[in-house]
Amino acid sequence: MTVTAGLDLGSLTTKAVVIRDGVIAGSVVMKSGVQSEDIAWRALKAALDQAGIGEEQVDGIVATGYGRVRVPFAHHKVTEITCHARGIYHLWPEVATVIDIGGQDSKVILLDRGGKVRDFVMNEKCAAGTGRFLEVMARSLEVNVEEMGELSLAAPRGASISSMCTVFAESEVVSLVAEGRPVAEIIRGLHEAVAQRVAAMASRVGWEEPVAMTGGVAKNRGVVKSLEDNLGTAIRVPPDPQIIGALGAALLAADSKK
Amino acid sequence: MDIYQLIRFHLAGPLRRRAFKSPWAYRLLKQLVAAQKKRYSWQAAYELLLNTIDQVAAAYLQQGPVVWHNVFFPTEILYGLGLVPFAPEAAAAVAVGLGVAEEAFRVAEGDWVSGESCSFHRLAYGCDRAGYLPPPGAVVCSSHLCDAAPQSLAAAAGYHHVPFYLLDVPHRQDAAAINYVARQLKSITFSLADALGVPWDQERFQEALLASNTAREHLLAVNRLRRQRPACIRGDEAHGFIYLMLAGFGSEAAAAVYRQLAAELEQRWREQRRAVPEERARLLWLHLRPYYPTEIFNLLEQEAGAVVVFEEMHHVYWEPLDPARPFYSLAGKVLSHHGLGCMSRRIEAILAMVDAYQVDGVIHFAHWGCRQSTAGLRLLQDALRDREIPFLNLEGDCVDKSKYAPGATRTRLEGFLEMLRAV
């Protein structure tokens, strides 16, 4: 029996996945904080408890995400680029393109037939087109970020959002609310703006079908729908897209044991 | 303690501006550098530094007519006239190390110089207005490769009330283009001599071209040695010599530094002294690098063993100059730059570098001010993909450290390295 764990320390959430012989045995998602090491450890413990596995049984741990360097107990540190690729390859080996939209960045990853990263592109350092962008807008609109997807799908059209700067877009959103535009249309407009930006990134890297989406924003059906419209293709979303990076990390830890 | 730390330590605060104009400062600086001679891992780097200090001293102490030039203007003309060349764009990079960049950026911002403009020129502007640069007697600039330089340098000439000479470089490389550029070079040369009261000295002019040819030969030797496996010099160390490509050709000093570098490289190659303990990958670096401290090269070369074995900026793209036809051959040099004209020329040159230096991957540092040229990257990306050479476009800024995001940069570089290992 091989037990490995993957930890994905993102800017908004920390994810832990424990796999036993290639099958997910436990997974948790927690809010990230300033004490990365402590949160990583707590996430790992929670995932192990869920799996009913003792920490002494863990054969390998791989850390990923921006906080990966702050996990001293991880055996290896691997970027989320490679981890998301590995996670998706495990679920759907035929996928050629992975779109990952996380809290503070978005990436488009091109895979070869063996699941290796062939090329990738990431957003520039501003928050445009990321989970943080949507979170700030949700706060301005006084809606729950989890509700945004369903709300936008109900809107007949999207409001035009011209700025992708988080600060300027927020003031634009406030103005639209003041003008009386329905909140659902504003949200749809935001999703379309995010999707257009990510689709441009996908073009940069030369995306290919089939396409899968990972990261917390993949839970937002409105963004996924807008991206599908922009790319003109269906996008596969795993049951829990937020943990795919951590799953990939756990799989890479298992790979290194072979 | 590196040279910049030394200067910051000894010439801190308001003293610094006055120190630039004091001969004692340069004597002191050379003594400080000389005292640390043994700490330089490359004697060529030590010599380059001493020569650069001399060149900077000549400009600040006005030891001859100072002529500002952009980094693509053929400096052989300036050395050939016995002038003191000074490149504000190169000075901007030095300003970062000297710790005056933040002040200079604030000065530029206060003068409505847009933060969207090239940071090299913005920084040079701020340094100039803050009194950090030696006043020019004239300003020369070529129009090729950099769109911002002609406007920036023309503005500087206007500010200092000195003549400005623009070398208009067409995108074609045919005979008419060579004649067009050659005529301008001749006109600029004699106009400069007239304006600055410099007597025309044919022998001196030809010597500058011969010195350029000698430097070229030694640089070719350096480049040949850098093709060997394992690499004997890290890209981090080699990058410093790019300064000569931008401001040194036509000087005896450039030839001497390259000769020294070639000799040291050859010796290290014979002794099999490796640049890094284990060479795991070989990289080609396109464009420039950040001039403020970053972990980029440490991460690539020291941590990952991915050595930058060659820089695009060190590519010898031109044929030897003909001292009997100085302007015609300098025009040929200007027009043969691989970055000029159609993108396919640059791609062809880069693919030749990929082969010659046996690289496993290519990194392009997309400096903010030069991003007008990044539209061509799609073509480059496709060409490299056809050859299955991994490519990373690393967005950043060479001189504005406020634009640097360490975490994001590390993720891109590590992702790229993981991709290289997977190939």
How is the main sheet of chain A built? 5 strands, mixed
Shape category of chain A: globular
Distance between the termini of chain A: 12 Å
Number of helices of chain B: 19
What percent of residues of chain B adopt helix (DSSP H or I)?
Answer: 40-55%
Poorly predicted residue ranges of chain B = none
Q: What is the count of distinct domains of chain A?
A: 1
Summarize the largest interface: chains and residue counts: A-B, 19 and 20 residues
CATH A-level architecture of chain A: 2-Layer Sandwich
The share of residues in extended strands of chain A comes to: 15-25%
Q: What is the CATH class of one domain in chain B?
A: Alpha Beta
Subunit structure (chain A): Homodimer.
Pfam families (chain A): BcrAD_BadFG
Protein name (chain A): R-phenyllactate dehydratase activator
Organism (chain A): Moorella mulderi DSM 14980
Features:
heterodimer, A: 258 residues, alpha/beta, Nucleotidyltransferase, domain 5, five-stranded mixed β-sheet, 10 strands, 41% helix, globular, B: 423 residues, Rossmann fold, 19 helices, 10% strand, metal-binding (chain A)
Describe this structure in words.
The complex is a heterodimer of chains A (258) and B (423). Chain A is an alpha/beta fold and 258 residues long. Chain A has a single domain, classed as 2-Layer Sandwich (Nucleotidyltransferase, domain 5). In chain A, 41% of the residues lie in helices and 21% in strands. Chain A is built from eight helices and ten strands. A five-stranded mixed β-sheet of chain A has the order 3-2-1-4-5. The N and C termini of chain A lie close together (12 Å). The mean pLDDT of chain A is 93. Chain B has 423 residues and is of the alpha/beta class. Chain B has a domain at 3-198: 3-Layer(aba) Sandwich (Rossmann fold), CATH 3.40.50. Chain B contains 19 helices and eight strands. In chain B, strands 2-1-3-4 form a four-stranded parallel β-sheet, with helices on both faces. A four-stranded parallel β-sheet of chain B has the order 6-5-7-8, sandwiched between helices. In chain B, helix 5 (76-80) links the parallel strand 1 and strand 2 (84-86). In chain B, helix 6 crosses helix 8 (119-129). The chains are: A alpha/beta (258), B alpha/beta (423). The interface between A and B is medium-sized, with 19 and 20 residues. Chain A: InterPro entries: ATPase_BadF (IPR002731), ATPase_NBD (IPR043129), CoA_E_activase_dom (IPR008275), Dehydratase_Activator_Redct (IPR051805). Chain A: It is an enzyme of class 3 (hydrolase). Chain A: One of its GO terms (molecular function) is hydrolase activity.
